[in-house]
Amino acid sequence: MKRSDSKKKSLTAFRSKAEKKLKEQMERLEKLSTLDVRDLVHELGTHQIELEMQNEELRRAQEELEASRSRYVELYDFAPVGYFTTDARGLIREVNLTGAQLLGIEKGSLLNKSFAGFLADAGDRSIYHAHRKDTFRTRAPHTCEVRLKRRDGALFFSQLQSAAVEHFDDKTGHIHTTVVDITERKQLEEGREKLLHELQDAFAKIKKLKELLPICSYCKKIRNDAGYWQRVEWYITEHTDTMFTHGICPECYEKVKEEMSQFRKKS
Fold first, then answer.
1. Residue 64: inside a domain
2. Alpha helices, DSSP H only, in 104-231?
3. CA distance 221 to 227
4. Is 105 exposed, middle or buried (0-12, 13-18, 19+ CB in 10 A)?
5. 161 pLDDT tier (thresholds 50, 70, 90)
6. Are 84 and 99 contacting, i.e. CB atoms less than 8 angstroms apart?
7. Which of 7, 25, 156, 188 is the most buried (most CB within 10 A)?
8. What pLDDT, in 10s, does the model give residues 59-103?
9. Is the CB of residue 213 less than 8 Å from the CB of residue 222?
10. Which domain covers residue 35, as residue numbers?
11. CA distance 83 to 98
């Protein structure tokens, strides 16, 4: 027997059963009294109203669910930090709008790309791989700092905070990572370190000046490390950032004035 004939025979049998069941129901309806029919109509009307009320409630719940979903998407996409979800191989499975903007790449273009591919160099990749390993191993949040590379090649410092989560289609789970741009903070830290070194150098120079220095009792010149005699202001200027201006104190002024007066009298 052909397959089409078998299918046609099956449909015919199914239709016969349905017609037989409908006939039985019609026979039962014919036996009902007017009162029974009225009760049945009332029951059906009540059931219809209940269904309409349930449908309205479902519609309202659906609208609330959609509104809640929209709020979640807005909070997720426009959060002040980047959100990345990576699988066990380190491939990006989900990313919010802020994360995509940090890298300068559209969200869709980031999916299934390796997150490690956006790290600045081998040193940063080593830090990141250790970070992922510790996160999977301990199942506790971990933090690290690495440099990431934008699409245009510009680098920026970032802080990663990751947590491992189980996933229904992956036995090893996924990692949720927040990415925060800390470039400004790093620049402030570097500026502070530079200032600290400058202060340390200045203190070292001041300390050196506080040590005993060989100075001439008459001309007040100072002997430097090479054995040469230098004027005091030259020595200090050479070893510090201090600059000198020359003037004359009142006592010396009176002394010079007296010497000039004596010189005029002799001449």
1. yes
2. 107-110, 122-138, 183-210
3. 12
4. middle
5. very high
6. yes
7. 156
8. 888 878 777 777 777 788 888 999 999 998 999 999 999 999 999
9. yes
10. 3-73
11. 7
